[in-house]
Structure formats: structure tokens, C-alpha cells
Amino acid sequence: MLEVSSLHKKQTIENLIENILTISFPDGEYPDITEKNIASESMSLTQSICDESKLKFGGCIASEFDIDLVNSDDRIFTTDLVGKWISVKLTQRFPSGEKLLPSAKLFLGTSLLPGETVAAKEYYLFSGIIDSAKLDKNNRNKRHIVAYDALSMLYDIDATNKLFNLWKTYPNGYKIGELVVLCLNYNGKHMIQVEDNKEILNEVINQQSGLTVRDFPTYNQAWLENSDTITYGEILKNCCEMLGLFGAVVPNKGKGVFRYIELGKNTETYDFYENLYAEEYDCTGYNSFNFSYGYSFTDRKAKTTVAESQWGEDVVTYDFTKNVVCWQKDDGIGGGLVHDVQSLLHGKTGERFYNCSYTPLAATLDGRPWVQIGDGLEIESYVTDSNGDFVYDNAGQPKKEKVKAYVLSRTLSGIKALTDSIEAKGE
To answer: How far apart are CA 248 and CA 260, in angstroms?
Structure first.
């Protein structure tokens, strides 16, 4: 979640003056696109870290940005837009809460309101590359733009030879922190900065050896001996899953920054909604982990083991057997990299897998640009009986309850009036 003061949040939710959308080009090919050339309420931003029916970690899913551009007398849009990097910024204007003192030189206007001044807050909603720019079928002065962030490219680029050579060169394991950076800078082109989360990466998971999460060694002899291929995106997803995390490109005025996403690091509360459907059950976290190890591909079924975390009593198992990065080497005496996996899952990584209970839901809420994918959310709703009537407490007030979940998928749509459609699937 982006840092926003409680006053700014309150003023934006209750007294928003206007939203202003601007599309800029980080490489400087074109001037900014402003509201003059943007079709009313045509923006749609779709983001997700898990779109499966059951919570699965590791999701590094590209964001999609859609918008309609309209030609004007001084500007005509063409397919030349395809392949260009864009950065999308939303500026919100709202009463600042600061009193405006009387003066003979002050006049009401766009920056002054009766009794107080106007404040503005900028949010970068999207950084990515335009994939298509098609003419509208019914209006040839309108062009529909579709763009994806940098993660989309990683799933189109084969990394089989690169990973093969790495593991051949480093038979004792290639550090997971460096492997993530390598995925995002696969050929020195379209380089994406990686946010260095020291809180996660510098955790010591083996007190005796001093091994940290950052230096966790990855090595898969079985994969080296088979013919499976892999992309940079799949490697990145496997690394994030191994750490109980997700991955996303956080937008900025440039091409974005890759960030490890922890579920529920921050929580946003909603006391009203347009639509809400919540399941009657909760999804619980995981405290047992099944993964493969061994020297050869032929031993795949014979060598699987379970690492259990120290949290919870009822066993809920997470399957790592298809994770290429997690498939570990065995030193034959119960130590080596197999032991490293167990050490990893006994630390904060195991906590992240376990402390992720939530209620599956789908909700339509007011759009709040400071809310980000992976954030927790609490939605207040009234308790009703079987007839749909309010249930009252002893004081005669309608009872309320809070539904708690995570922003696993969301579509932020509109411009002047933002709407957020949020979904958290789960079984």
C-alpha cells in the first residue's frame, strides 16, 4: 500500500474534487497524452497475483492497462504507439483541510475553495509497454490501447540454456537472490530495477552457517538431465513461490520496479460497498510442504520428503514438487540442500505460508489508488437474517461484521469516478 496520510485518505474518500489522468512516455518519443485525447471513463487496469481457484504462491502476473484515445485537430494516433513504454499517472485533487485566511488578494478558483486551499496527490498506476493500438470498429477517430507491464515479456523468452549453464557452473547451488535479478535483467535490455527488500532477503535461516534467504542455494540435477524447457518468467515465479511471496512491477514515472509482495503487509478498511459476495467459509494457510529431491530424473517419484513448519496443529500441505527451484540436491546423509529447504520453511517463509487465512469474496468498491495488489482488506457489512432483514444488538443498533481477505485480483476502472472490482478466490 502506498503511503498516504489519514487526512488525505479521508478527504479523498469524502470530498474528492477531481481525478486527472496523464499518460507519459519515459523514453521521450511523444508528448504527454492528457484528458483532451482520452475517452471519458475508458480506463481499465487489471492486476493479479493469484487467479487460481486455490491460493497458490509465486504469482508473477503481468498487469494489463486498457484505454481509448481520441484524435483531435492537433493530434492523431497511429499504430506507431505499439512497442512504446508508457507511464500512467493519476492526480487527485481534494480539500487540504488547511484554513484559508481572509485576504484582499485572494479569489476563488481551481486552487481555492471557500474556507480552505486545495491539495493534490499523485499516484502512478501503471508502467509498461503498449501491445496493441487498434481502431474502434464504429469510430475511426478512436483507438483502443492495450499495454502490459514488463513481466509479460519474461514469459516469452526462453531461459533453458541460461539456467542449464548456471547450474552446471555452480553445482553447489546458485543464490536465489541473484537468480531473481538475473531474470529481470535477462540480456541487459529492458532492464527492470529490483527493489532490495532487506527485511526478507537478509533473514538468517541457518544460525550455524549464517545462511540467509538471499544466499539460499538453488540446484536441480534432475532438471539438468531431462528435456524440459523454461522461461525467465517461470523461473521468477518459482523463486517467489519458494519464498512464500508473489512478484509485481510497481509503477513509477519510468518503466517500473520489481517488488516482492507479501500478503497483507498493509490493510485497507471499507465501511461501504456497491456489491459484496463472501463465502461462508475461510481458507486456511499451509504448515506442511511436499518437495522432490535427488540426483537424477529417474529418482523423482522415489525421493520426496515433507518439511513441516512449527505453526498450527491440523496439517495442510503445500505441493512444491513441480517447483524447479525447490527440487534440491541431497548429500546422502540428510543434510545439504534438503536441510536448507527445511531451514527456510522453519523461518519467516513458513510463517508467510501459514498466516494467510481469509474469506473468499468478490466485491465492487470505490476506487482507492493507494491500495495495491496483495494488500489486506476489511469490509464492514450488516448482519441479516434469512429474510434479508437487519439483525439488531441489545442496544437496538444493526449488527455489523467484518469480512477479511486479500486483494488477489483487481480491476480498477473509470477515471473521474473510480471503481475497484476485487476478487479473492479460494477453496
So the answer is: 7
**How far out from the chain centre does Cα 29 lie?**
28
Q: One digit per residue, pLDDT tens: the chain, 427 residues?
A: 788 888 788 888 888 889 999 999 999 999 999 999 999 999 999 999 998 899 999 999 999 999 999 999 999 999 999 999 999 999 999 888 776 665 555 555 555 555 667 889 999 999 999 999 999 999 999 999 999 999 999 999 999 999 999 989 998 889 999 999 999 886 555 568 888 899 999 999 888 889 999 999 888 877 887 888 999 999 999 999 999 999 999 999 999 999 999 999 999 999 989 999 999 899 999 988 887 776 554 554 435 566 666 666 788 889 888 888 886 665 444 444 556 787 888 889 989 999 999 999 999 999 999 999 999 999 998 888 778 788 888 888 888 889 999 999 999 999 999 999 999 999 8
Query: For the whole model, what pTM was predicted?
Result: 0.89
Cβ atoms within 10 Å, residue 334:
10
From the list 127, 17, 55, the residue with the least C-alpha distance to 318 is 55
The residue assigned the cell 523461518 is 347
Residue position matching grid coordinates 477515471: 415
Cell numbers standing for residue 321:
514438487
Terminal Cα-to-Cα distance of the chain (whole angstroms): 26
b/e code 79-92 from CB counts within 10 Å (16+ = b): eebeeebbbbbbeb
How many whole angstroms separate alpha carbon 407 and alpha carbon 48?
8
Hunting for cell 471513463 — which residue is that?
41
The three-class DSSP label of residue 272 is coil
Distance of CA 276 to the CA centre of its chain: 22
Q: Please report, as a single letter, which amino acid is at residue 55.
A: L
Q: 3-state secondary structure string, 106-164?
A: CCCECCEECCEEEEEEEEEEEEEEEEEEEECCCCCCEEEEEEECCHHHHCCCECHHHHH
